[in-house]
Design goal:
Strand order of the largest sheet of chain A: 5-6-7-2-13-12
Oligomer: homodimer
Structural class of chain A: alpha+beta
Number of strands of chain A: 15
Strand content of chain A: 15-25%
Radius of gyration of chain A: 21 Å
Largest interface: A-B, 32 and 32 residues
Helix content of chain A: 25-40%
Number of helices of chain A: 14
């Protein structure tokens, strides 16, 4: 049976090409419990593979046919083949983080097989620090970043002594499921409900377009400058990632009366300014970031069945200012204004608005409109909250959690941040050719955090 | 500057899609010399990467533009990035051939980046038998299998004591180049020559079509049965490979007055019969194999600059016969007839004939004609001669050489054989979904060789 897919979700299939894979990823590092090593974690995962139990969401594949009038829908893959989806990898020597990031860059560059459920889980051994890594890749049509993290944390536990936990792709254990259901009616609403809710999206979208053009709300951007990031891209990716203590970010925010997210954006702003200055490529007017705002917290929405529910704010990054404090101030004001204009809308209107802001971006590759004169914004910066406490899988501590996202034609760099426990991780995913020396941005982020601390008088 | 591409070569770009990557591959196993281990081979390759010397052929990328009226052509990649092309991999434990074949299946499934020169070389460490592996992937538009093997053997040496040899992707050392030039005017003819020679192909093709329909030569097939191999395929691949002593194959051929190639085809025939019988899927009429015949030996052609120069014979595999000897006899007669009808043609006519036989196959995915009523043939079986003597790279002995080829919509399995030293290797590349239990065919090949030995009274 073919279940309908929401228009927003199917956009991610329509817009995909060999140069623009539309999957998100996450890299997870696990510390083996005392008395075990990395290969013991692999043995547990091998056992889970042998069990061959797979959650319904991970058995869904996308299909369209004449019967569905060419519309994309979801159906269960009757020839599901777990070994195609869960793959064993190893790092070449010396097995440093450098080799791990190179492997993830490559794994993130290749397309998912559309004949099968749109995900892959890569088990990675051979880290020289004794940890074990997993890279998971999920099509954006199946889940957005927030849903992916939510699924991930449901598979983990705060209890380091819990054992016999299911694999990441397995159906939830009964205890965990009960707990999630207990949290309210929202989180476990089925696929059909979701489809019903979003079926009316298109008319709303049209209404929102006309209202937006009349009212010019702060969620829309009409003034992003051209930049080196806003050019056609190639299929290969480069990935860089690093974490900083959340407490340092929080202290800066507190002293400057800004949010953690404002400080995260200010770190990106400073790093981008330095990077572009070094390449003699900084635009005169400030870069504009599209900042997705999750709607999950307020409405529940389709969290359990996957699906996308994200609004966006256009943020002035203030990259034309030489002073870190002034950049942070510009960002804070811009985010406050953008969120204010979202406040009066229903979640559905916010989704429609986001689809509007996203649509040229998503539809351009599908329509071949690669030479747009002005980008709607310069890059996407997301900040996705992850688990707040240390999490474990069968005693192995989740030690790091790094997101990989989607660069696009005209959007060669994506920055996605994830908070976890007491750290915040920055994952930078760029076109390998268009964004040279991507790693230098990590140094820029570090320098900017220090500069902000000095500017606001902490640290 | 954009250099023209031959129509046959550009067909491989036009026909490519995410379900039908059009690259060939080869897996090579190297035995380290005494006193060295596999990681020493990697160190030598690392040094070669650092040298950053790349042969012109490997710097060519395919491009088409409005300037070239939409025709594909070749140009030098001005931003060539060796680290994108040469990649370090490692096998997960326990590092058996099983893990190696699984890795190659996956590497062979993903598309090459069309913005860059169409090749990748994967260095693979972690084999538990102490050997070092390399998997190379080259787009069929750049080189055919014969040219790839020729390039490979030019990079190797028969001298186990030779050192300071260039990397596989590096320009040939002066001594090697002189030797190749000395072999006659043919092998080193440039790209422009090749393009000139094939520019007249299309009119010849049209003439050949009409002649073929009138004369019904043995190179064309109009009677292949429908089979489980002739269905639409998916993007993921499964690869299996094994070698047998060439002497066993040769003895069978000698006793039956058949060629080595006839015996190779008979092994495939018996294995396919047993495999399809076990799945209750053997057609009543005999399977027809398309058998490419290389034109390099006679004409030189475009061997050095890459390019494709292959004729084809349609071979009746006699899979309806229960008796191995009778299958071999049918194959021998069919191949002799097919080769006879190629004999009266010029190389260009043979190429045109081959393009004719290939074109429905290659153009079907591009045109979306996936539901052809009868396949032109059931599968492609190639036998590509490799080096006859043991070959070495900087003292490391090439210990095994396995080809990976191209399954297509309607052609879910490809069998390519390579002779090397005193062995013949069979490489089976299949659609992961359409050809289940591909490994069983290896057992079938082994059983059929034994059955043939018994039938003709040798071994």
């Amino acid at each position: 049976m073919l279940l309908p897919m929401s228009p927003v979700d199917s956009m991610f299939l329509l817009a995909e090409s060999r140069e623009h894979p539309m999957h998100v990823g996450s890299l997870q590092l696990f510390q083996p419990p005392d008395g075990m090593d990395a290969l013991d974690i692999r043995s547990m995962l091998d056992d889970a593979i042998a069990d061959d139990e797979v959650a319904p969401l991970f058995q869904k594949r996308a299909r369209r046919s004449i019967m569905s009038l060419g519309q994309w829908g979801w159906e269960t893959d009757q020839e599901f083949d777990l070994e195609h989806h869960v793959r064993r990898n190893a790092l070449p020597q010396p097995g440093r983080i450098l080799e791990l990031l190179a492997l993830c860059s490559r794994l993130h560059s290749s397309l998912l097989d559309r004949h099968r459920p749109l995900w892959e889980m890569h088990l990675i051994e051979g880290l020289n620090d004794g940890r074990y890594a997993m890279y998971m890749k999920v099509h954006h049509a199946l889940v957005d970043g927030v849903s992916a993290l939510r699924m991930l944390s449901r598979m983990l536990s705060e209890d380091p002594d819990l054992r016999d936990m299911p694999a990441p792709w397995a159906p939830c254990a009964p205890t965990v499921r009960a707990e999630a259901t207990g949290a309210g009616g929202g989180p476990l609403r089925g696929l059909l409900d979701t489809a019903g809710e979003t079926a009316g999206l298109l008319p709303v979208l049209v209404r929102t377009i006309s209202r937006t053009l009349n009212e010019q709300t702060g969620t829309m951007s009409f003034s992003a400058p051209k930049s080196m990031l806003n050019v056609p891209i190639t299929g290969a990716r480069r990935f860089a990632a690093q974490s900083w203590p959340m407490e340092r970010v929080r202290q800066v925010g507190k002293a400057a009366e800004a949010t953690v997210n404002d400080v995260v954006l200010a770190m990106c702003s400073g790093a981008l300014r330095a990077y572009m200055l070094s390449l003699d490529a900084l635009p005169d007017s400030p870069l504009i970031a599209m900042v997705p705002v999750s709607l999950h917290a307020e409405e529940g929405g389709s969290a359990d069945g996957g699906g996308n529910a994200v609004g966006v704010v256009m943020c002035n990054l203030g990259t034309h200012h030489g002073d870190p404090a002034q950049r942070l101030e510009t960002i804070h004001a811009s985010m406050a204004e953008g969120k204010e204009s979202l406040r009066g809308m229903t979640p559905l209107q916010i989704m429609a608005m986001s689809a509007l802001a996203l649509s040229p971006l998503l539809l351009a590759p599908a329509l071949g409109l690669n030479s747009m004169l002005r980008p709607p914004f310069n890059l996407v910066i997301s900040n996705v909250p992850g688990p707040r406490k240390p999490m474990y899988w069968n005693g192995a501590r989740l030690d790091g959690l790094y997101p990989l996202s989607i660069p696009l034609d005209g959007q060669a760099l994506n920055i996605t941040c994830t908070s976890y426990s007491n750290e915040i991780a920055f994952g930078l995913t760029g076109c390998r050719r268009t964004v040279p020396h991507l790693q230098r941005l990590l140094g820029g982020l570090d320098a900017e955090l220090a500069a902000l601390e000095q500017a606001v008088g902490v640290g």
